[in-house]
Design a protein that fits this description.
With 426 residues, the chain is of the alpha/beta class. Helix content is 33%, strand content 22%. It contains 13 helices and 15 strands. The strands form three sheets. Strands 1, 2, 3, 4, 5, 6, 13, 14 and 15 form a nine-stranded mixed β-sheet that branches. Strands 9-11-7-12 form a four-stranded antiparallel β-sheet, with helices on one face. Strands 8-10 form a two-stranded antiparallel sheet. β1 and β2 form a beta hairpin. α3 packs across α13 and α9 packs antiparallel against α10. The structure holds glyoxylic acid (GLV) and manganese (II) ion (2 copies). The site of one manganese (II) ion has 5 residues, from loops.
C-alpha cells in the first residue's frame, strides 16, 4: 500500500509522534488517559499540535468553534476566508484529514490522537514524495469529540455543521457546574460567535478520518487497515430519578424513597430491554447519586443511557421502553423519573463514491462498519466523508487496554498518505 515507495521512517512516524505526548493527561486514579476539552492536558495537546504543524510549515488557525486547522500550502490557495480560498467561487476544494485530541475518562492512547498523529505523519510522507497540489490540504483536531466534559459527543463538529444550537452549547455544564461558554471563553474562544460555518464546509471537497479500530474486525481478518462503511446510529439520554434524601441510620427501610435503589433497577432494565432487539447496544456507564455520601440516602440520581442500533426507529423504541420501565420502577420506590435526550445521530453511511475510490487506492483493505461515534459521522451530512481504521490487537477501546502496534500505525499513515495523494491529484 506504500504508493510511491516512501514508507515508515520518514520523520518521527506515528509512534514517534504519540511518544511525545505519552505523558500528557495520564490518569493515575482511573488508569489510561483523561484529556477533557480545555483542561490542562487537552490544552497541552493543542500546543503540541500547533508546534508540530508549524514544524511542517503549516498555517494553524482555530475556527469559530475551537477546532484547530493546520493548512499545508502545496502551492495552492490558503485557508478558507482568505482571497481565492476554498469555499470561494472557482477555488479548488480542500482535502481534510484529522480526528480529535480529547479522551473519555480513563481512555486509551489512540482513540483520537492516532488519527491526528497519522495525519501529521502522512503530511511528512507527502512532503518526502514531493506531492504538491492546487488543492489545499488541512489537518484538523476537533474539540470535545467524546463529550466527556460537556455531555454532547462531537460538540465541535456538531457546531460546525449546525447540528447543535449555539445557545444550547454555550449553556452546557461540566461536572463542576462551569458552562461551555465560561470554559471555552477562558481558553480564548469568542463564544459569542460559535455555530454553523457553511463557508468553511463549502470549501471542503473530502474529509477522511483515520481512527483506531474499536473492535476485532481487523484482528479477525488479519489485516492492518480497513476502509469505513458506516457509523451506527447512537445517542445519549439523561435519566433523573428523584426521591427523598435522608439519614442512613434513622430512616427505617419501609420509610425510604431511595432513588439509588430505583436507579439500580433501571440499570438492569436497560440490559433487559436491549436484549429484545438484535444488534442493539445499550449501556449505563455513568451514574451519579446526589449528594453522594456513604451515610446519606440520595435525594436524586442522574444516570446516563447510551443506546445504539442500525435502525433509528428501533433506537427510538428502545429508549421509549426504557423510559416506561424506569417510570414503573421509580414509582415502585416512591420516586419519579424524567428522561432528556442529550445528543443523537442516526446511522450514517459514508459517501459511496469516495469509499470506492479509496478502495481503489487500497485494494487489499477490507470495508468495515463501526459501532463507535466519530466526527466523520457528523461531517458526512455536509461533505463527502470517509474513514480508515487501523488494527487494534486488543479489540478493546475506551479503556487503557486499547492498543496499536507501531508497524500497524505506520501502515495506517502510509495508507492515509496514499489516499490523500490520490485525492489531492484531482
Ligand atoms: C465515541 O467514541 C462514542 O462512540 O461514543
Ligand atoms: Mn471514543
Ligand atoms: Mn474517537
Amino acid at each position: 500500500m506504500s504508493g510511491a515507495g516512501v514508507g515508515p521512517g520518514v520523520g518521527p512516524g506515528v509512534a514517534g509522534l504519540l511518544a511525545e505526548v505519552a505523558d500528557v493527561g495520564r490518569d493515575a486514579t482511573r488508569g489510561g488517559y483523561s484529556r477533557f476539552v480545555y483542561d490542562d492536558a487537552e490544552l497541552t495537546l493543542r500546543e503540541w499540535f500547533t508546534e508540530q504543524a508549524e514544524r511542517r510549515s503549516m498555517e494553524v488557525e482555530t475556527d469559530r468553534n475551537g477546532a484547530l486547522w493546520a493548512w499545508r500550502h502545496g502551492g495552492g490557495p490558503g485557508r478558507p476566508g482568505s482571497p481565492g480560498s476554498p469555499g470561494s467561487p472557482g477555488a479548488p476544494s480542500a482535502v481534510v484529514t484529522g480526528s480529535h485530541l480529547d479522551s473519555v475518562p480513563g481512555g486509551g492512547a489512540y482513540d483520537g490522537p492516532l488519527g491526528v498523529a497519522s495525519a501529521l505523519a502522512a503530511v511528512d510522507l507527502l512532503d518526502a514524495r514531493g506531492v504538491r497540489s492546487e488543492r489545499p490540504l488541512a489537518v484538523v483536531a476537533f474539540p470535545e469529540e467524546e463529550g466527556a466534559r460537556f455531555g454532547v459527543a462531537c460538540l465541535g463538529s456538531r457546531l460546525l455543521t449546525g447540528a447543535v444550537d449555539p445557545d444550547r452549547a454555550r449553556g452546557l455544564r461540566d461536572a463542576d457546574g462551569r458552562t461551555f461558554a465560561e470554559v471555552a471563553g477562558a481558553a480564548g474562544l469568542d463564544v459569542a460567535h460559535i455555530g454553523a460555518d457553511p463557508r468553511r464546509l463549502a470549501g471542503i471537497g473530502a474529509f477522511v478520518e483515520l481512527h483506531v479500530e474499536q473492535g476485532r474486525g481487523l484482528v479477525d481478518l488479519d489485516r492492518p487497515v480497513a476502509v469505513g462503511s458506516s457509523v451506527l446510529g447512537h445517542g445519549r439520554w439523561r435519566l433523573v430519578v428523584e426521591g427523598e434524601g435522608n439519614h442512613a441510620g434513622t430512616t427505617l427501610m419501609a420509610d425510604r424513597r431511595d432513588p439509588l435503589v430505583a436507579a439500580a433497577a433501571v440499570v438492569l432494565a436497560v440490559r433487559e430491554v436491549a436484549t429484545r432487539y438484535d444488534d442493539a447496544r445499550a449501556t449505563v456507564g455513568r451514574l451519579q447519586p446526589v449528594p453522594g455520601g456513604t451515610n446519606v440516602i440520595a435525594s436524586r440520581v442522574d444516570l446516563w443511557l447510551d443506546a445504539r442500533h442500525p435502525d433509528d426507529a428501533v433506537t427510538a423504541a428502545l429508549v421509549e421502553q426504557v423510559h416506561a420501565r424506569a417510570q414503573e420502577l421509580a414509582a415502585a420506590e416512591g420516586c419519579t423519573v424524567t428522561l432528556v435526550e442529550e445528543s443523537y445521530g442516526g446511522t450514517v453511511h459514508f459517501d459511496g463514491a469516495l469509499r470506492d475510490r479509496i478502495r481503489g487506492v487500497l485494494p487489499g483493505a477490507p470495508v468495515l462498519a463501526t459501532g463507535a461515534g466519530h466526527d466523520a459521522g457528523v461531517l458526512a451530512g455536509a461533505v463527502p466523508t470517509a474513514m480508515l481504521f487501523t488494527r487494534n490487537p486488543s479489540g478493546v477501546s475506551h479503556s487503557p487496554h486499547e492498543h496499536v502496534e507501531d508497524v500497524d500505525a505506520e501502515a495506517g499513515a502510509v495508507a492515509l498518505a496514499d489516499v490523500l495523494a490520490d485525492l489531492l491529484g484531482d
